[in-house]
Amino acid sequence: MSASTGQGDALVTSTDPLHPANLISELCASFYRLGWVTGTGGGICIRTNDKVYIAPSGVQKERIEPSHIFVLPYPQAEPSPHTDRIFLRRPKLNLKESACTPLFWNAFTIRNAGSCIHTHSQNAVMATLLWEKEKMFRISHQEMIKGVRIGGNGPTLSYLDTLEVPIIDNTPNEEDLKDSMKEAMEKFPRAAGILVLRHGIYVWGDDWQKAKTQTECLDYLLEIGVKMKLAGLPTVLNE
Q: With contact defined as beta carbons under 8 Å apart, do 121 and 127 qualify?
């Protein structure tokens, strides 16, 4: 279900650079330059009160325009591959909403997040391979840990805390990760993100700024953790 064309387009048309439709376009281009969303992979969503703005799937992320953005009402029944989704606005082009949509909804319903980011960062993928047996990436005594919040939207961690990010198995279809991601988020309520084996990471926050900051901090920690592990250095001290 979707709104009329005129009304729908008004939801993504604004001269305000901080409007969610403009922000998603800008952030996707920035994430592309970081190597997080190449090959049309990855995505981002922003929730503002009763609306969710979501990037399209299968498009060049560095070329997304505000007119490509989907708008969904919130709350609504949790999206899944097996339920219909209600839209306030669909793009005029023949595009599909992000395959990450059901996983983004996990961040909304379980953590009350205002934004969720999914990247295909090589740092995240390498970490899932090096910590595959443990099913948990762990690192301590790094300054950038202070940029990560407990549960993604609680108090910030300290330099002395041990950061833990669960690793879940990948599935052939992105949407089918919904249940295992939900299970991991409920089992590890202090986790600020979920790693997906041989795939990438999901990170959320109260708003797009906090989600972006935490994604940057986690990517830094994943990168240095991988380098430390390959150099034979312990990533967690005092164990």
A: no
- Quote the CA–CA distance of 68 and 141 in Å, as a whole number: 42
Q: Which residues are catalytic?
A: 143
Which residues make Cβ contacts (< 8 Å) with residue 231, sequence separation at least 6?
A: none
Please choose, from the candidates 44, 69, 66, 45, the residue with its C-alpha nearest in 3D space to the C-alpha of residue 56. 69
Q: What pLDDT digit, counting tens, does each position of 176-186 carry?
A: 999 999 999 99
What distances in angstroms separate CA 45 from CA 2, 34, 204, one per listed residue?
Answer: 18, 18, 10
3-state secondary structure of 87: coil
Q: Which of 155, 170, 173, 225 is nearest to 201 (CA)?
A: 170
Would the pLDDT of 217 be above 60?
A: yes
Query: What is the tens place of the pLDDT at every residue in 59-95?
Result: 899 999 999 999 999 988 776 655 678 899 999 888 9
Contact of 23 with 208, CB cutoff 8 Å: yes
End-to-end CA distance of the chain: 54
Q: What mean pLDDT comes out for the span 200-229?
A: 98
**């988020």: which residue's tokens?**
185
**Mean pLDDT estimate for the chain:** 93
Q: Quick check: 127 and 166 in contact, CB under 8 A?
A: no
Q: Are strands 96-97 and 56-57 parallel, antiparallel or unpaired?
A: antiparallel
Reference 120, options 212, 218, 43; nearest CA is: 43
Contact (CB, 8 A) for 153 and 204: yes
Position 122: which residue type? Q
CA 163 to chain centroid, in Å, comes to 18
- DSSP class of residue 236? S
